[in-house]
Amino acid sequence: MLRLKLGQILVKKGFVTEQQVEEAIAIQKKEGGRIGEILITKGHISEENLIAALGNQLEIPYYSSDKPEMLAPNPDNDLEKVIPNDFAKKNNVLPLSKHINSLTCVVNDPLDLILIDNLKRITGYDINLVLATKSAIQKAINEFYYGENRASLLDKAVEKSYQQTESVAATLVNIQKNDAATAELSLDNLIAKAGEAPVIKLVDLIIRQAIDERASDIHIEPFENKSILRYRIDGTLYTIPPPAPHLHLPIVSRIKILAKLDIAEKRLPQDGTITAKLEDRTVDIRISTIPTLWGEKVVMRILDKGAVKLELSALGFDSHQMDTIRKALKSPYGLMFVTGPTGSGKSTTLYAALNECIDATKNIMTAENPVEYKIEGINQVNIRSSIGLTFATALKAFLRQDPDVIMVGEVRDLDTASICVRAALTGHLVLSTLHTNNAPAAISRLLDIGIPSYLLTPSLILVVAQRLAKRLCQDCKEPYEPLPHMHGGIEFKSDLIYKPKGCESCNFHGYKGRVVVAEILVIDNKIRELISKNASSAEITDAARKNGMFTIFESGIKLIEQGFTSFEEVCRVSVDI
Question: pLDDT confidence of 200, banded at 50, 70, 90?
């Protein structure tokens, strides 16, 4: 059955005329906003009329003034313990009842996926919704949490406050046609037109929520009788309330349209890009689709340069580590590697290093697959193996472009590694990445690839191995005394270290953001001597530690003592315990 639009429902209920709806739509096209809010501002409907229409449209129960019992929480459910009063007050939400695994709450905006997801996280219940006006919810909150006396004192202030508060709106995508290779998604104005297809608003909300929650990836996955929506936040995947299963195909098609992919091709993987404008910054979104048993899975990688400061000082390196890296970056030539597994922040570190190199007197060139962050002042090349533009091909061309600094996204084969070494030996500073577990293993990997030790010895100057540990939320982290028996006998220099707790600031995860845990291997004369003798990684590690290198685990211990992360996180990311 085709669902009626909000304006049609308002007309059908006799709240407004068709002419008034058309007038509101005209205002919306010119000035933006929501149809319902415009009609309220014009004096055509009340807030209660709007809630009734929304309830009908979305098939959600709604409160009206002639049914006051709907906003009376069950007194036997200890609901004030399920949702704290400060959370209820701030988010304008009231728990009404709970039953087995479900919790019924009254809200004003049923499309606020962030609020609904947070409710699910902090309560552990599946959430059922009831709709009500903002003023009615706030009044009920005051009566439930604070008692009638305080409620009566706050009523007028609350009502005045909410008259001045803009309602939460769904986002509207505007595709701007241009000659670029990507579609452009405008998220500047949060507009929800009554005439828009729900899938458009839903896709926009999914993207906006992910950006607001600092997610690095969005996973939209189909299964036999359901869809799953997950966000990767600080390296961990969290399940979000998903869309209805029948919307999966339209959602995938909408994303494909934005990324200029072939919506008819469902048998082969596809890759594309969306450029989103969010307030005063631009967010690049990489799209990857792949056919699975129950349909196409979509992964959207969010590359938000505004959320990550591409500066070494902002990544978590200590002062000594930053000085070591900066000294290497000032070298006129040489080879520097950043190593670690997928998702360990190697590219971000390389970009931060490149930022240190930007100078009007230098020619900086990069070969990337794909370009993750667009940086002014750097010549960036997108590798396209399908047409023959490989890392090796790009590097050979770079050497004819009079470069000072070269960044290579990844060294995977002998051809690419050989050109990097040759470039480093002929007066260029070369930065790249490898997939190894620690810094000394990078040397073994290069030798195994086929680089002769007599070429590697004079070219290699620095190896940075790193992981990303979750950063403890600074608003709620809990101190405790680290007794020797608690951590395998490890002794800490600090009397107190910290563990996660969880609060509203960190969405009750206990962590907010991530910090680099690194080991930095300086290639000095002793290490060069070992390389020339084809020494093992263990021998190189011993020599480097005697020379002052901290392993990843040892660097992690220092971060624990400084209160940046927890012992559990360091154990999770370390391989050298």
Answer: confident
Please list, in sequence order, all residues whose beta carbon lies within 8 angstroms of the beta carbon of residue 57, skipping any fewer than 6 positions away.
3, 4, 5, 6, 9
Specify the DSSP element, H or E, that contains 171. none
Cα gap 199→170, rounded to integer Å: 11
Query: How far apart, in whole angstroms, are the C-alpha atoms of residue 399 and residue 409?
Result: 16
Q: Kindly tell me if the per-residue pLDDT of 188 is higher than 80.
A: no
What gap in Å lies between CA 499 and CA 473, rounded to an integer? 9
**d(C-alpha 187, C-alpha 498), whole Å:** 38
Q: Which of the 8 DSSP states describes residue 493?
A: S
Q: What is the dihedral angle through the alpha carbons of 228, 231, 232, 237, rounded to the nearest 10 degrees?
A: -40
CB 246 within 8 A of CB 240: no
3-state secondary structure of 406: strand
Compute the average pLDDT of residues 85-94: 87
**Residues 292/222, Cβ–Cβ less than 8 Å:** yes
pLDDT over threshold 60, residue 173: no
Nearest to 532 by CA among 522, 540, 542: 540
Indicate the pLDDT class of residue 144, thresholds 50, 70 and 90: confident
Encoded amino acid at 34, one letter: R
Q: How confident is the model at residue 168 (pLDDT cuts 50, 70, 90)?
A: very low
- pTM for the structure as a whole: 0.63
Number of H helices, E strands in the chain: 22, 19
Q: Residue 34 and residue 17: Cα distance in Å, rounded?
A: 17
The tokens 């490989």 sit on which residue?
390
Residue 422 has pLDDT above 50, yes or no: yes
DSSP one-letter string for 107-151: ES-TT-HHHHHHHHHHH-SEEEEEE--HHHHHHHHIIIII-HHHH
Phi-psi region of 427 (alpha: psi -120 to 50; beta: other; left: phi over 0): left
Tens digit of each residue's pLDDT (9 = 90 or more) over 92-130: 899 999 888 889 999 988 877 778 888 888 888 888 999
Q: What is the pLDDT of residue 192?
A: 36
pLDDT value for 3 = 63
User: Which among 339, 534, 335 is positioned nearest to 444, based on CA atoms?
Assistant: 534
What is the CA 217 to chain-centroid distance, rounded? Answer: 6
**Residue owning tokens 């967010």:** 283
Task: Please list, in sequence order, all residues whose beta carbon lies within 8 angstroms of the beta carbon of residue 163, skipping any fewer than 6 positions away.
Answer: none
Angle 113-118-124 from CA coordinates, rounded to 5°: 120
Q: CA 212, CA 168: separation in Å to the nearest integer?
A: 14
Coil vs helix vs strand at 347: helix
Percentage of the chain beyond pLDDT 90 is 39
Cα gap 405→399, rounded to integer Å = 10
Distance CA 75, CA 67 (A): 18
